[in-house]
Amino acid sequence: MNDLRTISIPKITDDEKFEFLCRDIYRNDTTYELVELNGRRGQSQQGVDIFAREATSGNWIGIQCKCRASGIQLTKADIQTEVNKAKGFNPSIHTLFIYTSCERDVKVQEIVRNINTANYLKFVVEIKFWNDIEEALKENQNYSIYYRYYNKFFTDNLTLGHAVSKLFNLDLCFNDQFDTHYELMLGKIPNYQNNHHTNANYYRGTYFFVNLTQNLSETFTVPCYDSDLIEVFPNRIDRHRICNWLNELGSIDDFISSEASSHRFSMTSEQRAEFMNDE
Fold first, then answer.
1. What domains are defined for the chain?
2. Helix or strand or coil: residue 268?
């Protein structure tokens, strides 16, 4: 991905969205497992908004989220209150992470150090500021999370008129029994006029299939018919199945932007016989 280290990420000011962001960062970290929100709003949470378990040690951790739209820093009383609540969390936690949307602050760090130095807790307290969240979001492994929460700040390829596509596997079946495997690319050429490429504008507003298995390609519009895919899928029963699969997607655009990369489509023996008889 692009180097995002010098980009300032706008702070989240909504409490619930801030919790979801913290949860998603931990869910994307293979160091942890069983990452969940703790109950729902209004319930007693024992100072823990999110809990998770360290995958290797089995130790439980708690995460307390403090979204401060005003930017006012956490006080000693704020932190101590959450620490005291966390003592009652079951099972006992090994570490309490306090996440705040405030900027890193030396006084708050000192408060947390003093709490840990007092040595009266059965768990360690760590403070994480917005600076730490920014650093986490800018890691390559968290790009999908970054995009999910801040996609409106990204330049859209479709807006620019660039084609977008999805690489995926498609297994064709009869009666749910595997028959044929294809490695494919399905994409869209947006309807965006670019006067520098007048001749190519003929293809604007269309979709394209690339059959990587057989090194073939074709453009088409929706709804798609078997006859639109003759060049890309020479085998007529495969072409018919793929066309049916395509039309059942609902939204090709949503499919292109989805994360799943392996798909299946099955036809019954009766449907196959009916198709062959019609031919």
1. 15-153 (3.40.1350.10), 157-278 (no CATH)
2. coil
